[in-house]
Amino acid sequence: MIDTVIFDMDGTLLNTLDDIVESVNRTLIEFKFPARKKNEIRQFVGNGVNNLFEKALPQNTDYNIRSKCVEFFKKEYSKNMYINTTPYNGILSLLKAIRNSCISTAIVSNKFDKAVKDLSSRYFGDLIDVAIGQSDKISSKPSTNGVYEVMRELRAKKVVFVGDSDIDILTAKNARIPSIAVTWGYRDKECLANANYIAETPAELMKIIKSL
């Protein structure tokens, strides 16, 4: 029986895309770069904010400019990350069902750590036991730093990782734990082929969790 479920955040638990798009484009315009389309930014999300701006900015943009964009974005997004963001349908019921099954829950995200903790607290409260984002101490996925930190904090022994991207699947593989890919997130289904399991709905996800 699984004792801990680790979730990705963006595209898995929360639909954050509209608020990310708005803050990315405000940043680009502030620094005199062209705005990006929503579908472009959807493909850029998932590998951390530095990677996001590597892709959103024109090629060969000076590193110092990119760093300033990242810092501006963090401040902008922190002010505006609750406007359109919402849990996906069925997620709160899923988390309550997991809690009622005496299984621990955690988030490991490539979003910067403060935003991960603030969003988790606001939308999920005590339904999430540990929330970890990218920081100086925790490397971006597919590094296993975040997964192992969760396991240490929760004393977890049998863990599954749930996410919406190939990065999440690779993170689970690197940590030698099973992966469940969800299809309602930011990546096309073709990117999820290497997951151990695929869930089309939160209810289906709960059935898989119970079977492990």
Report on the structure:
- With 212 residues, the chain is of the alpha/beta class.
- It folds into two domains: 4-15 and 86-211, HAD superfamily/HAD-like (Rossmann fold), CATH 3.40.50.1000; 17-80, DNA polymerase, domain 1.
- The chain is 47% helix and 16% strand.
- The chain has helices at residues 17-30, 38-44, 49-56, 63-80, 91-100, 113-124, 145-154, 166-175, 202-211; strands at 4-7, 14-15, 86-87, 104-112, 130-134, 159-163, 179-182, 197-199.
- The strands form two sheets. Strands 5-4-1-6-7-8 form a six-stranded parallel sheet, with helices on both faces.
- Strand 4 (104-112), helix 6 and strand 5 form a beta-alpha-beta unit.
- It is globular, with a radius of gyration of 17 Å.
- The protein starts with a strand and ends with a helix.
User: What is the CATH class designation of the largest domain?
Assistant: Alpha Beta
State the share of residues found in helices, binned by percent.
40-55%
Q: By CATH's scheme, which homologous superfamily of the largest domain applies?
A: HAD superfamily/HAD-like
Shape: globular
Taking the alpha carbons of the first and last residues, their distance comes to 6 Å
CATH architecture of the largest domain: 3-Layer(aba) Sandwich
Strand content: 15-25%
Radius of gyration: 17 Å
* Structural class assignment: alpha/beta
* Poorly predicted segments: none
| Element pattern in H and E | EEHHHHEHEHEHEHEEH
**Biggest sheet: strands, sense, closure?**
6 strands, parallel
Number of domains: 2
Tally of helical runs: 9
Q: At the third CATH level, what is the topology name of the largest domain?
A: Rossmann fold
Q: What is the averaged pLDDT score?
A: 96
Number of strands: 8
Major β-sheet strand ordering: 5-4-1-6-7-8
